[in-house]
Amino acid sequence: MATKKKKYIDFAGEPPKTLDAFPFYNFTLDEDQLQFANAIWNPEKLIIFCNSPSGTGKTQIAMGVANMLVRYGFYDGIIGVVSPCEEARQGYLPGDITQKSAVYFEPFYQAMIECNMNPDTDISDEAMVNDKNGTAFVKLITHTFTRGSSFRNKVIILDEFQNFAFKDAKKILTRCADDSKIIVIGHDGQCDLEDESQSGFVPYMEHFRGDPRCAICELHTNYRGWVSSHADKLELK
């Protein structure tokens, strides 16, 4: 994912059929990244999984295509969901629930900025200032308080899904209606759960595999560089 001169997308025109020759913000996508972006863009795919290492651009691509889908009018908002992993520790952090959760949302903030979005105006905040001003279309939440909710006509990004325990993965996926687009991203090699076998990421990816409404993608190039890539290869025996 090479960075290019800042490029803004004209959302007033006709939406493209595919993203093959379409400018993607500040980046030139490699072949794997373009396949992932097109899978998200494809109206026939309801759920897209991406199991890829750190630094491959999965969060940026997910957020960038989600932004395009909303700006072109296919969906009416983006919901980004993360797992706090250790909810007890989250409870002891200072501030309201938005402030407690903010540390988990940093990858979303960075991805939004890289895709020419403005977190200060685009995100629905606790005081709902941006909602009242009519600028908010992104909601960032942890899975903690989602039971009983329904996600309709949204692009839903489930980030670091390897950190969702199976019961939490089921809880969040069963909130999603079929008029939404679900993007499930993570890496099965970097799980922060105390018992990695409890992760719902791979079991749900395999559960959906083979259904024509599902796409499963992989990204292989770590664009952070050699240190990040080399560190990711070491496994404890």
From TrEMBL:
Residues 31-221 form the PhoH-like protein domain. Pfam families: PhoH. The keyword Nucleotide-binding applies. It comes from the Bacteria. One of its GO terms (cellular component) is cytosol. Keywords: ATP-binding, Nucleotide-binding. This is PhoH family protein.
